[in-house]
């Protein structure tokens, strides 16, 4: 990946994640997008949902982005990295974020039905676990929520 985009703010990071969500939308996938940045703000991984395309229940944007980031830096520990994702990660993805030791999570809209970070479950900041992730929620929340709503309205 030769992406030299540098993120200067959480809003910029979420706009890049929304670009990934739009790719998923065009594929008929639930439009969730994610990017991972290093501490200099450089995007090192981009991903969007691919469950329908790959017939893989684990092909969530966050999981794909984590795999790409690990390959890029040649390490499973993502200690100094930030993940931007358009919707609050599910419990599976929250577990992957915890396991990868990601430093920071920024997400757009809350998932009140299956969120794994703050709404339904609190996996990433659970004080009983040995690693807590810094979380910022609600970045470009309206835009992140709108693309998912539009997707499901079109499917009905």
Automatic annotation (TrEMBL):
<keyword id="KW-0819">tRNA processing</keyword>
<dbReference type="InterPro" id="IPR016193">
    <property type="entry name" value="Cytidine_deaminase-like"/>
</dbReference>
<protein>
    <recommendedName>
        <fullName>tRNA-specific adenosine deaminase</fullName>
        <ecNumber>3.5.4.33</ecNumber>
    </recommendedName>
</protein>
<comment type="similarity">
    <text>Belongs to the cytidine and deoxycytidylate deaminase family. ADAT2 subfamily.</text>
</comment>
<keyword id="KW-0862">Zinc</keyword>
<dbReference type="GO" id="GO:0008270">
    <property type="term" value="F:zinc ion binding"/>
</dbReference>
<dbReference type="InterPro" id="IPR002125">
    <property type="entry name" value="CMP_dCMP_dom"/>
</dbReference>
<feature type="binding site">
    <location>
        <position position="90"/>
    </location>
    <ligand>
        <name>Zn(2+)</name>
    </ligand>
</feature>
<dbReference type="Pfam" id="PF14437">
    <property type="entry name" value="MafB19-deam"/>
</dbReference>
<feature type="active site" description="Proton donor">
    <location>
        <position position="62"/>
    </location>
</feature>
<dbReference type="GO" id="GO:0002100">
    <property type="term" value="P:tRNA wobble adenosine to inosine editing"/>
</dbReference>
<feature type="binding site">
    <location>
        <position position="93"/>
    </location>
    <ligand>
        <name>Zn(2+)</name>
    </ligand>
</feature>
<feature type="domain" description="CMP/dCMP-type deaminase">
    <location>
        <begin position="8"/>
        <end position="119"/>
    </location>
</feature>
<dbReference type="InterPro" id="IPR016192">
    <property type="entry name" value="APOBEC/CMP_deaminase_Zn-bd"/>
</dbReference>
<keyword id="KW-0378">Hydrolase</keyword>
<dbReference type="InterPro" id="IPR058535">
    <property type="entry name" value="MafB19-deam"/>
</dbReference>
<feature type="binding site">
    <location>
        <position position="60"/>
    </location>
    <ligand>
        <name>Zn(2+)</name>
    </ligand>
</feature>
<comment type="function">
    <text>Catalyzes the deamination of adenosine to inosine at the wobble position 34 of tRNA(Arg2).</text>
</comment>
<comment type="subunit">
    <text>Homodimer.</text>
</comment>
<keyword id="KW-0479">Metal-binding</keyword>
<dbReference type="InterPro" id="IPR028883">
    <property type="entry name" value="tRNA_aden_deaminase"/>
</dbReference>
<dbReference type="GO" id="GO:0052717">
    <property type="term" value="F:tRNA-specific adenosine-34 deaminase activity"/>
</dbReference>
């Amino acid at each position: 990946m030769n992406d030299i985009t540098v993120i200067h703010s959480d809003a910029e990071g979420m706009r890049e994640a929304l670009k990934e969500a739009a790719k998923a939308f065009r594929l008929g996938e639930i439009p969730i997008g994610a990017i991972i940045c290093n501490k200099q703000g450089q995007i090192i991984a981009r991903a969007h949902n691919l469950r329908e395309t790959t017939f893989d229940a684990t092909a969530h944007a966050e999981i794909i982005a984590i795999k790409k980031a690990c390959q890029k830096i040649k390490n499973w520990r993502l200690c100094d990295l930030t993940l931007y994702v358009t919707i609050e990660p599910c419990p599976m993805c929250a577990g992957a974020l915890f396991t990868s030791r990601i430093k920071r999570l920024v997400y757009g809209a809350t998932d009140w039905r299956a969120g794994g970070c703050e709404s339904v479950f609190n996996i990433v900041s659970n004080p009983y676990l040995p690693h807590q992730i810094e979380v910022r929620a609600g970045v470009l929340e309206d835009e992140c929520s709108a693309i998912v709503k539009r997707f499901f309205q079109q499917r009905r």
